[in-house]
Request: fold
Amino acid sequence: MEPIMAIVVGLLYAAAIYMMLRRSIVKLVIGLMLISNAANLLIFTSAGMTRGGPPLIPEGSVLPEGVIADPLPQALILTAIVIAFGVLAFAVVLIHRAYNILRTDNLDQMKDTDT
Amino acid sequence: MSLEVALPIIIPLMTGTLCVMLWRYNVIQRVLSLVGSLALLGVSIWLLVSVIEHGHVVMYMGNWVAPFGITLVADMLSAIMVVLTGMMAVAIAIFSLSSASPSHERFGYYPLMHLLLAGVAGSFLTGDIFNLYVWFEVMLIASFALLILGGERAQMEGAVKYVTLNLLSSAIFLSAIGLLYGITGTLNMADIAVKLGAAEHTGMVDVIAVMFLIAFGIKAAAFPLFFWLPASYHTGPVAVSALFAGLLTKVGVYALFRVFTLIFNQNVDFTHELLLWMAALTMLTGVLGAAAQFEFRRILSFHIVSQIGYMILGLALYTPLAIIGGVFYIMHHIIVKTNLFLISGITHRLLGCYDLKKLGGVYKARPFLSVLFLIPALSLAGIPPLSGFFAKFIIIRAGVEASAWVVTGIALLVGLLTLYSMIKIWAEVFWKPLPEGQDDTALTLGKTPSSLVILYIPVILLALCTLYIGLNGQPIYDLAEFSARQLLNPQAYIDAVLGGGS
Reply:
C-alpha cells in the first residue's frame, strides 16, 4: 500500500507545483489547494499505514486490545485540513478582490511592487 | 502551574476577542488595545523574571504530562522574544492611536493586531512542533488580513505574493513535520531531540533538516527565499509594516534557532555550513537590493533581509560567542527596525509620500525628528556607541575566532553598505531642500499638533531603548549569554520538559 500512496503523494506535489508555476492566479490557488492535500496525505502515509481497530481502551484495562491504528496522524490531518480550509477561503476572496482591483488574472502583470 | 507562560498568549487573545465584541466602538477598542498591550508587556516581564530565576519554565496544557500533551516552554530566548513582542505591541498601540484611519478601524484593525500578537507569542512559547505550525497559521491569517486593510492596488499585488509564498512555506513545514513524525513517532520537540539523538543518523534526517531550513527560511526571508518581503511589506498601513518588520520575520529566525540547536544538532558540519552560506548571501543580496531603491519603506524592507543574515550567521557559526551575538542582534534589530518604520510613517504624515526623490527639507523644519531618525539609522549601520555596534562587534568577533574569514569579510562590507543606505535616506529626506512643487504645509506648521505628538511618543521610547542598549549593554549581554548557554546545552531543556511536573 505504501508504494502506491508514495506515488499518489508525489503526483499531487508535482501537479501542485506545476499549477503554481502557471500565470493565472486561479491556477495558483488550485496549486495551493493541491499542495496542502499532498502534505496531509504525506503525514498519513509516513506515520505508517496499519490495518487496525479504533484506538479505544476497553473498560477495566489500561491497554487497548490487538493492533490499533495510530490516532495522532488523523488528529494532525484534521487540524491541518481545517486550517488549510480557512486559509484557502481567504485566498479565494483575495484573488477575487485582486482581480476586481487590478483587472487582470495574469501574475506577469503584477510587477508594480517588485521594482 | 506556571501561569506566566500561558498569559502572554491568553492576554492578546482576550483583548482581540473583546475588541471584536465592541466592533462598533472604535474609541473603546483603541483604549482596550493600549491596555491589552501594556498588560502583555507586564506579563512578559514577569515571565522574564521567572525564567531568570528558574532557567526553564514549563507548563503542561490540560495537565497532560509531556510528551503526551501540548507543552508550553519558556527558556531565555523565548522570554526575551516575548518581552520584545510586548514592547513592540505597546509602541504600535500608541502609534495607532493617531495613525490608524477610521476605515481601517472599521474593518477590524485592533482585533487582527492582537490575534497576530497571540500567534507570535504562541510561536515563541510552544514546545510542540505541530503546535508551532498552528501558531504560525494564526499569525499568518491575521497578517494577511492586516496587510490588505485599505484594499489599494499595490496592497493587492503585494498580498498575492505574500500569501502564496507563506502558504507554500507552511505546506513544506507541514510535510517536514509529517516525515519527522514518521521517524520519531512524537511531536514534542524535547522528545524528538531525544529520539533523534538515540536513533542511527540517516540521510533522511538531513533531508528533513533542509525542509525545515527552507520552510523557516521563507518565513525569515533568508536568501534565496526572500523575494516576497520587499514586494509586500511596504504596501500595508505604516503601523502594520512596522509591526511586521519588527516581529514576523523574527519568528522565522526564532524557529531556526530553536530547531537547529535543539533537534538538528547531530550533523552540524552539513546543516550549519549550509546556514553559513545562506547567511552570507542573505546579508549581501539584502544590502545590494537596498542600494538600488528610492522608496523609504522599500529600502528599510531590503535592510530587514540583510539584517536577518547577521542573525542566521550567529546561529551558523554555532560557537557560544556567536549565539550570544545572534540573540543580541535580534534584540537590537527588532527595536531599531520598528522604530525606522515608524519614523517613515511620520515623514509620510508630514509630506504625504514615501518616494525619496519627492521628500526633503525635514531637517530644517523638524530637527528633533531628524535626530530621532539618526539614532536608529546609525545604530542599524553599527556606529558606536549605539546598540548595533555591539551586536555587529560580537558577531564579527565570533567570526574571526571561528576563522570564517570570507563570511566575516562580507559582514563588515555589508555594515559599510548599510551606512551608505542610511546616509542616502538622510541626505534625500532630511538634508536636501524640499523639491519644488511639493506641499509643505504640514511640515512647516509652527506648532506641533497633538496627533503628531502621539506619533512621536513610541519613536522616542524606542530610541531611548537603543541608546540604553548602546550605553549600558552589559545587562542585555548577560541575558544573551544566559540564553546562549541554554541553547548550546539542549539537555537542560529536555530535562525540564520531560522531567514531568513542575
Q: What stands out?
A: Chain B has a mean pLDDT of 90.
